[in-house]
Amino acid sequence: MTNLAIVCVDDEISVLKSLEIELEKAFGDTYLYEFAESADEALELLQELEENNIETRMIISDWLMPGMKGDEFLTQVHRQYPHIATVLLTGQAAEAVIQTTQQNANLYEYLPKPWSKHKFLATVQSALTQS
User: Fold this and answer.
1) pTM (two decimals)
2) The CATH fold of domain 4-130
């Protein structure tokens, strides 16, 4: 079993399922794929992964979610886990939000929804290579 994880965060289960399918097809069992429907759930998940000696390599997060928004979540993640590559995948965020997230959370990439499969997988591969 691998000790490397990719975490996806989105309040839409259909989006999480699509991400799971694309990631598993592209990377197989190289990574453990974990999913959360909110930022708070994802923060708990990150702590559990760390406690189990599983290194989270990347987080792919939506912006517009109930409770904590994606920019605030990714900023908090960056403070606690600066080694994790972060990608914001959303159709809702304004340019100012994206720029602030780039500065405060060391955002690796912003991808708009609906996403291009090719651009998505190229971004994930590139981020994983650099992290």
Assistant:
1) 0.95
2) Rossmann fold (3.40.50)
Q: Please report the DSSP string for the chain in residue order.
A: ---EEEEEE-S-HHHHHHHHHHHHHHHGGGSEEEEESSHHHHHHHHHHHHHTT-EEEEEEE-SS-SSS-HHHHHHHHHHH-TTSEEEEEESS--HHHHHHHHHHH---EEEESSPPHHHHHHHHHHHHHH-
Mean pLDDT, consecutive 10-residue stretches, the chain (131 aa), reads 93 97 97 98 98 97 94 96 95 85 93 95 94 66
